Amino acid sequence: MCSVHDTVEFEKRGIPATVIVTQVFSNAARHSFRSKGMEGHELIELPHPVSNLSAPEMRALALRRIGELVRQLTA
């Protein structure tokens, strides 16, 4: 997963990063983190699928998760 790889590289450089995935991909992301030596790295898990959401629905979903994103990036 490229997003996990990018997150790991940012974190190695001291830049806080996280991954946003849908539930279907969360196990793969956790496995990727573990294989890169970052077991337990947090991620943001969205319901699957999101591709069928309208723009207002996606905005509402994003706004519900923004606190989690901020917490992960500032912890």
Please give a structural write-up.
The chain has 75 residues and is mainly alpha-helical. The chain has one domain. It has 3 helices and 2 strands, in the order αβαβα. It is globular, with a radius of gyration of 13 Å. The model has no long low-confidence stretch (mean pLDDT 96).
Question: What would a concise description of this structure say?
Answer:
The protein has 75 residues and is mainly alpha-helical. It contains 3 helices and 2 strands.
Radius of gyration: 13 Å
N-to-C SSE string, H for helix and E for strand: HEHEH
Q: Numbering strands along the chain, what is their spatial order in the largest sheet?
A: 1-2
Number of strands: 2
Mean pLDDT: 96
Low-confidence stretches: none
**Main pleated sheet:** 2 strands, parallel
